[in-house]
Amino acid sequence: MATFEAQVESITSIAIDGSSVPTQTQLTQYLTDGAKEILNYLPRSKQSLFTTSNDLNSSSSSLTVLGSEIFSVTRDDGTINQPCRVVSPALQGRIRDADDMMAATTTDPAYYVTNNILVVVPSPTNAQNAHVQTLNYPAVAFGDTAIAKFPDDAEYLVVIYACIKAIESAFTSEEDVELYTPILAQLRSDYEKGLQGLL
Q: Does residue 188 carry a pLDDT above 80?
């Protein structure tokens, strides 16, 4: 299968390399942004098919979420995985206070996110770990030919998204913008129709 760069070049007729407009680095960013936008567009039921499980324990008791969508957080109580309730970071003191009515316990655990860090209370241990399901936003490079943990029927939309962004970028250095105008209009139409087809 052709690389994503080759597919974009074929559709747009733009030769892309390290010093072109756009560059290969920019194309990688367009592909990554496109994959993220498409995953965010999917209904939550379909998004759940492309999540990643992260385990927290005594050596790794928090998770940097990097803006990822959080699907579920559970903590083992010694018998079963209990669902964690989400609380505002402003309440982290109260959920840690055993005398407070909001106190988090092994059978009623809680979590909060502050500064992109997800914290589970009570703190997970090796015997009673926590599990966090997050939406997996892939990094897509210009030289890739496929996207892992991504809907196969939506990969072509990532290419179309990158084509749109590549043409918009090429406008800045192209003297004859009319050359790309009809291609851009068709790509935008194809992209919108493709997104609707994913629902």
A: yes
